Amino acid sequence: MSSVVTLYEHIVVGEDQAPVIAGTTMKVVELVAEKLAYGWSPEELHFQHPYLTLGQVYSALAYYADHAAEIDADLERRLRFVDRMRETASRPPWQERLRQRST
Questions:
Q1: Percent of the chain clearing pLDDT 90 (strictly above)
Q2: Which domains does the chain have, with CATH numbers?
């Protein structure tokens, strides 16, 4: 996989144009999603992902601070995709049986 070095020491942009924490498979958007969803501090993000250094976490958050519009758009795109998948997914048979028992 080839990647492009950025001005952020720990961030590279992969072939799919998504910023990734160098040496990992963690995308910046994934770390940002956790920060936004749970309100985690950089230290808590580091605690939750012990394979990341605190420097990597701060670098990812700095990248987000400078590219918030594009990361937010990517996050919104991902959320819309999940919503579409939920709408089109059929319920498993066991779930329908449970629903019928409760009525």
A1: 70
A2: 3-101 (1.10.10.10)
